[in-house]
From TrEMBL, chain A:
This is UPF0033 domain-containing protein. It comes from Levilinea saccharolytica. Gene3D superfamilies: TusA-like domain. Pfam families: TusA. It comes from the Bacteria. Residues 7-31 form the UPF0033 domain. Belongs to the sulfur carrier protein TusA family. InterPro entries: TusA-like, TusA-like_sf.
TrEMBL record, chain B:
Pfam families: Sulf_transp. This is Membrane protein. The chain crosses the membrane at residues 12-29, 62-81, 93-116, 128-145, 157-182, 202-222, 243-263, 283-302, 314-335, 341-362. It comes from Levilinea saccharolytica. Keywords: Membrane, Transmembrane, Transmembrane helix. The lineage of its organism: Bacteria, Bacillati, Chloroflexota, Anaerolineae, Anaerolineales. The keyword Transmembrane applies.
Length: 73, 368
């Protein structure tokens, strides 16, 4: 198992979180990408962007209003 | 309640929001708003600026309750679903400037993206060059985003920062209802603000309760569904994601049908309400507005909704729009139904040059 790449998009405005996620997914091709987000809107966008690109998305809602989205393919 | 939220954040959320706006906006026209101006965030910000005395264009002064409703509707949704989060610090000064240039461009066209689509659905074909300009502006913004443009990260802020816009909206509501004469003229007689137009678009409005009610409903729905008239096209191009685009499509189609049903569909170029026929500057104005909205991360409606959920940066963008409206009408940058203003062309060109410099130079360091 290879280590997962981590992308931190906390604090960035639309469309940067989803755009950076898409760029990272296209460059990875397959594997695991963990995205850290601090906004519900971005979290939804990242999840949808991942699914549209054919990746599985799992969202963990952290205690401090942040989200950890794990994308795998 | 969670199932309602899940529905509104699904792909059906923007579509439902678009349908609701497509019904309610033409109804506001039926009940008193200016033609094809059921909702126009730019025009309404301009009217608010006028009512507060930031410009003296006597025909466009009124505190529009729809905007107040947008803020409170968004605030209510954000509080209810635990998304009210005071935050700020992402290039606030630049966001203020983007708000100014966005409304300067929009007032050359005479409408924000919301009104561009509502004008189209009412048969005002002058909206077509405006919408093409909007697409071009969004396209330019996407080029800058792809080259790495970023306004940088926001951070959690103190609660006070998040409550500035709701407090401002409450103040506007009080000023709307009481219309106090706080100023004094040379002879010491009480005089505005608040100014309310006695003729022209500013004098045309639906009743306070109806306009406020529509604003609340739209604000609530749009906060949940993240409805955005600029993100719609941006996400199709940038992310291959039609999620928001279907919302705008639903808005245009529903507003078209509602306008037909109400006898408000009048196709043509000439004699359209609060519109001019200069295609070049209808296009040019919206290139500037579209670019400014894209660099700021969303359309003017979205900025108002974000300001209602505690985003101090979006609040500054909205304040920039109000200040920009004052500048636009004081320096003859805004168009009128007679055509572009004396300095509209210069303002659009200067705005495009400045935003291009910002687009090429503002960067966030790689974070991953």
């Amino acid at each position: 198992m290879t280590s997962a790449k981590i992308l931190d998009v906390r604090g960035l405005s639309c469309p940067e979180p989803a755009m950076l996620t898409r760029e990272a997914l296209l460059s990875l091709g397959k594997g695991t990408l963990i995205v850290l987000s601090d906004s519900a809107t971005s979290c939804h966008n990242i999840e949808r962007t991942g699914k549209l690109a054919g990746w599985k998305a799992e969202v963990a809602d952290e205690d401090d209003h942040s989200y950890r989205i794990t994308l795998t393919k | 309640m969670q199932s309602v939220s899940k529905f509104l954040t699904s792909r059906w959320g923007p579509i439902l929001t678009g349908i609701v706006i497509g019904i309610l906006a033409p109804l506001l026209v039926k009940f008193g708003n200016p033609g094809n101006m059921g909702i126009c965030v730019a025009c309404f910000s301009r009217d608010i600026a006028g009512a507060l005395g930031f410009h003296r264009a006597a025909t466009v002064q009124y505190i529009r309750p729809e905007i107040i409703g947008f803020v409170f509707g968004s605030l209510a949704a954000a509080l209810l679903f635990r998304e009210f989060k005071p935050r700020g610090g992402s290039s606030p000064l630049i966001r203020f400037l983007l708000g100014m240039f966005a409304i300067i461009g929009a007032l050359v066209f005479l409408g924000c993206p919301w009104r561009a689509y509502l004008r189209l659905s009412g048969g005002d074909w002058n909206a077509i060059p405006g919408i093409l300009g909007l697409f071009a502006g969004i396209g330019l913004g996407i080029l800058f985003l792809k080259r790495g443009f970023s306004l940088g990260r926001s951070r959690a802020a103190s609660p006070a920062a998040g409550w500035v816009m709701p407090a401002f909206a409450l103040l506007l509501l009080i000023l709307l209802v009481t219309a106090p004469l706080l100023g004094r003229d040379a002879e010491g007689n009480p005089v505005g603000p608040i100014f309310f137009s006695e003729k022209g678009p500013g004098s045309q409005h639906a009743s306070l309760l109806l306009a406020l009610g529509v604003g609340l409903v739209v604000g609530f729905l749009a906060q949940r569904s993240r409805f955005c008239t600029v993100g719609a096209l941006r996400d199709v191009v940038l992310l291959r994601d039609g999620h928001l685009f279907y919302g705008v499509l639903a808005l245009v189609l529903t507003a078209f049908v509602t306008n037909l049903a109400l006898g408000q569909f009048n196709p043509g170029f000439e004699a359209q309400p609060v519109a001019h026929t200069n295609a070049l500057w209808n296009f040019g104005g919206m290139v500037l507005a579209g670019l400014a909205f894209t660099l700021a991360g969303g359309c003017p409606g979205r900025q108002v909704f974000l300001s209602g959920e505690g985003d101090a940066d979006a609040t500054l963008f909205v304040f920039g729009m109000i200040a920009g409206a004052g500048v636009a009408h004081t320096f003859s940058l805004a168009a009128s139904p007679a055509g572009p203003g004396a300095n509209s062309a210069a303002a659009v060109i200067a705005g495009l040059v400045i935003l291009t410099i910002l687009g090429l130079t503002m960067r966030e360091k790689a974070s991953a």
